[in-house]
């Protein structure tokens, strides 16, 4: 059965394909599957909004009019964003390893520069497990620029876009 067939079946007889938000949902799904190993969930690659940028901290909205893109950026080279040495943004492939990530620590209300080599997703996971998240929004970004005015490396920030979505329309983050 194809993904579309599974989605149609679930929408006809139930509500939709399963949306998995956390490990608890995944464990419930595995139990309900009763030993089946090949299952469809509602997560799928979508092209509905392929160029929508969003901040890693979901509560913050991205505003194109308040962006810091470098000249000729974004050039659709990638789906993740790094801050260049010149304090402007560059879209980059998310699997590129950079030597710097900018986390935000909500407890101290300050940015934290982490000088360890990571791709964007690993940087996001590190920031989320040790601080709050990657620096997100222009206020946090401006605070980062004030705190670390001199850098010699491009650093990951919390701006990205993806083409994944849940069939029920909820956010894939």
UniProtKB/TrEMBL annotation:
Q: Which residues form a coiled coil?
A: none
Looking at the UniProt entry, the stretches that span the membrane are none
SUPFAM superfamilies xref list: C-type lectin-like
Q: Report domain C-type lectin positions.
A: 1-95, 103-173
Q: Which residues form the signal peptide?
A: none
Question: What name appears for this protein in its UniProt entry?
Answer: C-type lectin domain-containing protein
